Fold each of these.
Amino acid sequence: MNESSRFVVLGVSGGIAAYKAVDICRRLVDEGCHVAPILTSEATRFVGAITFSALASEPAQTELYDVKSRIPHTRLGQEADVIVIAPTTANVLAKIANGIADDLLTNTVLASRAPLILAPAMHTEMWENPAVKANIATLRSRGVIIVDPEYGRLAGGDRGAGRLATTERIVEAVLSQVSGRANDLEGRRIVVTAGGTKEAIDPVRFLSNRSSGKQGHAIANAAARRGALVTLVTAASSVDADEGVTVVSVETAAEMLDGVHRVAAEADVVIMAAAVADFRPANPQGHKIKRSEGVPSIMLEPTVDILASLVEHRRDGQVIVGFAAETDDALEHGRAKLASKGCDLLVVNDVSEPGVGFNHETNSVVILEAGQDDVSTGLASKYSVANVLLDRVMRRLAQ
Ligand SMILES: Cc1cc2nc3c(=O)[nH]c(=O)nc-3n(C[C@H](O)[C@H](O)[C@H](O)COP(=O)(O)O)c2cc1C
């Protein structure tokens, strides 16, 4: 996929101008955006979801309670680089201004930190109604970008203010929000590791950790959308990588070491987001240990430090990124790890904080780099964190 980081959620609400959103959708796709349409149920009275599905980068969605998707009300908002709603009805304006979330579109808006662009369209009387004006003022004061409607012919032959802005103006507003990262990693070879490795005690039991692999997968997807050639070496049990990502599934630290080294020699960047076991059972049993055998003593032995071995075999100009999940004095431990491992960037998170790290949809990290200011993401979706990290990797590659 070459849509890079131009992940656009295109909201369509139920006004007569909904048919114009079809053209906006097509133009955004032509501009290289990954377009995910969401239609309100009223919008589907004016134009069919199937039309958007045929033109967009993924099927149009209309339902909040969609059994196929585990968390549809947050996924699109978290992944979006920008949300644009065109047309925006007076009704949707009012709901967003008041934080109402009673359908997929308004939930997506509420569950997103992406820039929001609204292109209102309605009859002049509605557009000039004090309630609508107050909602517009509230939304502008919160940083929402309003693409003002124009004067012209309206539904039913009336003329006045309230006609949807031109497709050009709306597409331009979207592109100006997302163009910074467009294809900036094109042709770069990036290896990302993800997930917690599993180390066998016997054929049915293993030692592992709480890593879900979500952050690593988000990095792989974000890098692929920015044009990189991505190999994801993952120990995560569920893999939701984009089509363009080459996935290598592994289970143990030893398999991960082998999998990473097979591809790292060719890579411009290696991002070690996986939670690799530091220790493994020294004598895994070939048969299931029975309760009747008594409580086993499990001797542990160290695994190979993959990050250190990558640094040792680093090729010229290669950028190596390490991760440190900590529970106390995270920054202090992170700085020590950056210095001792010799990687270029170290991503630290304090997994004891709410919403941070293992299995959450969100993360909050500090990116450390020797001689540079720390970059702190604050609590954000793992996809946003991925893009902030990739911005930093990009800067490092350019040095
Ligand atoms: C033929 C027709 C055209 C409409 N056009 C508009 C419009 O341009 N703008 C608007 O705000 N509402 C318009 N409405 C009213 C909306 O459809 C109505 O407020 C609806 O509840 C909006 O639902 P939604 O905001 O969830 O999409 C129109 C209604 C009809 C029947």
Amino acid sequence: MPDGNQLIACHECDLLQHEVALPEGGVARCRRCGGLLYRSHPRGLERALAYTLGALVLFVISNTFPIVGLEVNGDLIQATLLGTVSMLYRDGMWLVAALLLFTTVLAPLVHLLAMLYVLLPLQFGALPRSPELVVRVLTEVKHWGMVEVFVLGVLVSLVKLADLAKIVPGVALWSFGGLMILFTAASIAFDPRQIWLKMEHAS
Ligand SMILES: [Zn+2]
């Protein structure tokens, strides 16, 4: 929390200096070498909220619609993410099922909801309750979301399967791609420094 005592080191010359609150669109530079310390993106939190809401919509689509269909002997077999999890579980691969469920469904969902929990009240000038706890949850959970790894894994398997069966990309495959992009954009725009600053103004 930048309370005026928070120190930041310059990336260029390693000079330690106190963090200061910036106006929107402002830039903090090193007092010795002029190197960029940090910046406050204009309307950063509004963008974070928009990306988060968009990502939540794509999250629902990604988990509802089939990721891929395989045409084998004229039959179309479709697979959704949750369907795959329950199939793995039934086949006795419960550890793989749990990992897949945690890294591609639960962790991203908690991450998105936690960002929404902080951003939505701030948008309307209100304070979220126990923000420190939520930010701690966010820091823990963000290492576990592996949507990118999952999408990459699906794409590699599809290329390998292409010889064996006709592949029909499902709606969820495209929305997973979009989710990956929006998720990254939301995480980048979710700037804790700007959030604490906005909370000080709202309180
Ligand atoms: Zn410097």
Amino acid sequence: MTDRPLALVTGASRGIGAAVAEALSDTHRILLGGRDAESLAALAARLPDAEPWPVDLSDEAAVAEAAAGIDRLDVLVHSAGVARLGEVAGSPAESWRANFEVNVVAVAELTRLLLPALRSANGHVVVINSGQGLSAREGWGPYAASKFGVRAFADVLRAEEEGNGLRVTSVYPGRTDTEMQQAVVAGEGGEYDPAKYLRPESVAGAVAAAVLAGPDAHLTDITVRPRPHR
Ligand SMILES: NC(=O)c1ccc[n+]([C@@H]2O[C@H](COP(=O)([O-])OP(=O)(O)OC[C@H]3O[C@@H](n4cnc5c(N)ncnc54)[C@H](OP(=O)(O)O)[C@@H]3O)[C@@H](O)[C@H]2O)c1
């Protein structure tokens, strides 16, 4: 790897995380987080200066071991996420736990482990939240609650770490054309029309805008809504 700034992007094996890795790859060395080793290797081969960082974020010991190898980090993008939807009446504890485990607990723990490395670099933490983290809809309870939770996490982290030179950005995308959205629409029983949804590259563009903003600027919250397109 070269001496360009280093970014770790979780959820980089597909969807929004893969697009973020691509968008930052002109300016940053990238560690590609995810569990699907084949997809990570394929993306690493396409990008100029990237390598896989294959870790299951719900495996605390594995995360600690992988994070221990990083002593300076300029950018941490949390894009890994799961969406287990359902009405409250039909959502058992397991469904709430599954959302909170990856969407909140793993985000907090990975950030905690990497804080010294981020502080060393006056670094930047970006959390891919969701429109559901701003306004919760019926049928989305367990996922929306996790996104409200991770919004609180980002707000608190910003308040606590701004004095240490960190920037913290929450990005709130609407429906985006990824495998996660395909599963959501399949569950809702609707027809999947990608033209109605954001492209992952557009969400990645918002992340890049925050990361590449001048050192005097701190973009704290960015909402990106889909606009019908063909
Ligand atoms: N798509 C949308 O409409 C939409 C809208 C708003 C917000 N978001 C948010 O955007 C983020 C990315 O979503 P997406 O649509 O790109 O989803 P996606 O296509 O389903 O990708 C999810 C990513 O998360 C990773 N991941 C999940 N569980 C993991 C675990 N235990 N350990 C490590 N990695 C894990 C997956 O990697 P592996 O399978 O390789 O582990 C994959 O790279 C999520 O936080 C989601 O909530 C999505």
